[in-house]
C-alpha cells in the first residue's frame, strides 16, 4: 500500500504472470497494469512518496522501478541472484533488494546506480524481511535463524 493510503500495488506469480497492478483503495478498481518483463513479478513496493513502484524478478535476476502514476519504466537493475524482498529507505534515496539467502543489494533510486552488496550471514536461513530504520541509512534484515542483522549504508558494513 502507498504511504498515502490511496493505492495498492500487487505483483503476480501465477494468475497473471508478469503483471504489476496498481489498485485504488477508494474504489477497489484496478487503475492500470504494468506488463513486467519476467514471468514472476514479486515482491513489489511503493516508494515513500508514492511516485515509484519497485518489483523484483525471480527468473531474470533483475529488478525494475516504474513511475506509479503512468507505468513508465524508470530503472532496470541487474541483480546477482533472484531477489525475494524489496524496501525503500524512508527518504526515498535508496532501494534495497534481498535474496532468499540473506544477501542484500543497495541502489540509488534517482540514478539507478549500484551502491553496495551486503553479505547475509551463512546459516541464517531464508530471508523473511528487510526494512530501513527511520534514519534511512540503517537497513535491518530478519532471517529464519539467528538475530536480525543491521547494515549501515554509509559505511557499507554489517553493524551487528
TrEMBL record:
First and last residues of every WD repeat: 86-117
Keywords attached to this entry: WD repeat
InterPro entries: Quinoprotein_ADH-like_sf (IPR011047), WD40/YVTN_repeat-like_dom_sf (IPR015943), WD40_rpt (IPR001680)
Annotated signal sequence range: none
Highest taxon listed in the record's lineage: Eukaryota
UniProt xrefs under Pfam families: WD40 (PF00400)
PROSITE patterns xrefs: WD_REPEATS_2 (PS50082)
Keyword Glycoprotein attributed: no
Keyword Manganese listed: no
Protein name: Anaphase-promoting complex subunit 4 WD40 domain-containing protein
High-level lineage: Eukaryota, Fungi, Dikarya, Basidiomycota, Agaricomycotina
Amino acid at each position: 500500500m502507498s504511504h498515502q493510503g490511496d493505492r495498492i500495488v500487487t505483483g503476480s506469480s501465477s494468475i497473471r504472470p508478469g503483471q504489476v497492478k496498481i489498485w485504488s483503495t477508494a474504489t477497489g478498481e484496478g487503475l492500470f497494469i504494468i506488463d513486467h518483463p519476467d514471468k514472476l513479478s514479486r515482491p513489489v513496493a511503493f516508494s515513500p512518496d508514492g511516485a515509484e513502484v519497485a518489483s523484483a524478478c525471480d527468473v531474470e535476476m533483475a529488478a525494475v522501478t516504474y513511475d506509479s502514476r503512468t507505468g513508465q519504466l524508470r530503472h532496470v537493475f541487474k541483480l546477482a541472484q533472484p531477489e525475494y524482498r524489496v524496501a525503500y529507505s524512508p527518504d526515498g534515496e535508496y532501494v534495497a533488494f534481498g535474496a532468499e539467502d540473506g544477501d542484500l543489494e543497495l541502489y540509488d533510486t534517482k540514478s539507478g546506480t549500484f551502491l553496495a552488496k551486503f553479505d547475509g550471514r551463512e546459516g541464517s536461513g531464508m530471508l523473511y524481511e528487510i526494512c530501513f530504520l527511520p534514519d534511512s541509512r540503517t537497513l535491518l534484515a530478519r532471517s529464519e535463524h539467528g538475530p536480525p542483522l543491521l547494515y549501515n549504508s554509509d559505511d557499507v558494513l554489517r553493524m551487528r
